[in-house]
Amino acid sequence: GPSSSSIDMDMLKEREIDRNRLQFGQLLGEGAFGHVVKATLQQPDEDDVVVAVKKLKDDTETTTRTALLRETCIMLLCGHHDNIIGLKGICFRDGPLQLVLEYAEHGSLLQLLWTLRAESKHNMAILSNKRHIFETMMVEVCSGLEHLASNRLVHRDIAARNILICGKGTAKIADFGLARDTYAVGYHRQERGNDLLPLKWMAPESLKNEAKFTDKSDVWSFGVLLWEVAQLGRTPYPGMNGADRIYDALYNHFRLPMPRLCTEERYRLMLQCWKFNEKTRLDATTVRKRLEEDPNGFF
Ligand code: ADE
């Protein structure tokens, strides 16, 4: 998994960006350890480009600095994919560590779902008009997951808050590490050691053993993401807290209930992402094909 990957400084140096090329704008998101700020990046021979810059609050803390460097290496190892937020480069000389990322104009999928929930309160027709947009986004996230799996990378925090929507409406997987806590204030997290864990998105094997994250645990989280979409951004398992409590419920066959705004077929797909035994759980490719075969599963 990514947590065991080492930091390759030579690889990082090849992607160095001079921090003087950045002009900062508004704050995009804030978390416990860092924030993301909108900025423009001046390019020597091209037009300026809008970017998102992830910075640490306290850059003197070695562990968070290491985490950000590791995140950068993971993104570099991952390579380019249309459904994964691109890494433009990194500033590490003469100041705090800064990750320069592709900017996603429409913000997070979670915010989009919250907006849609508010709009649809008075006009349910909005939902059926937007159905295909969300189906497409879910297929795109699956493609991103397939790319990660084929590069033997595990994201560990697939959730609506970590899916960003770019200008053309393309969904992209973001937050390979630290800024997992960037835009949603820690309502779903529980402190365990020094780590903040997205318990309600975690597969049972990850809840039981923190080190056990695989491509199949990402698929479990993807199932919870499907549920978040159908529930217009509601929080899973309201009122249920603690890793042990969630694990026990899952062990006893309890699952998130069927949302009102999806088909039984779509719910069956979620349940197949939530197979207790990861060996019988679907892989991202199969999930993507199922979504493509059934483009009317939401709302
Ligand atoms: N918030 C966090 N990361 C972002 C990004 N890359 N683009 C826009 N908003 C963000």
Structure description:
The chain has 299 residues and is of the alpha+beta class. The chain contains 9 helices and 9 strands. The protein has helices at residues 9-13, 62-78, 109-120, 125-150, 204-208, 215-230, 243-251, 264-273, 284-293, and strands at 22-30, 34-41, 49-56, 87-91, 98-102, 163-165, 171-173, 190-192, 195-197. Strands 1-2-3-5-4 form a 5-stranded antiparallel beta sheet, with helices on one face. A two-stranded antiparallel ribbon has the order 6-7. A two-stranded antiparallel sheet has the order 8-9. The protein is globular, with a radius of gyration of 19 Å. 42% of the residues are buried. Residues 178-194 have low confidence and may be disordered. Adenine is lined by residues 28-29, 36, 52, 85, 101-104, 107, 164, 174, 182-183.
Could you provide a short overview of the structure?
By secondary structure, the protein is α+β, with helices and mostly antiparallel strands. 37% of the residues lie in helices and 16% in strands.
List all distinct small molecules, including ions and cofactors, that are bound in this structure. adenine
SS class: alpha+beta
Q: Round the mean pLDDT to the nearest integer and report it.
A: 89
Radius of gyration: 19 Å
Give helix and strand order, one letter per element, not per position.
Answer: HEEEHEEHHEEEEHHHHH
The main β sheet shows up as: 5 strands, antiparallel
* pLDDT < 50 stretches: 178-194
Give a count of the beta strands, DSSP E runs of length 2 or more: 9
Helix content: 25-40%
Strand content: 15-25%
Strand order, sheet with most strands:
1-2-3-5-4
User: How far apart, in Å, are the first and last alpha carbons?
Assistant: 35 Å
Describe the global form.
Answer: globular
What is the number of helices? Answer: 9
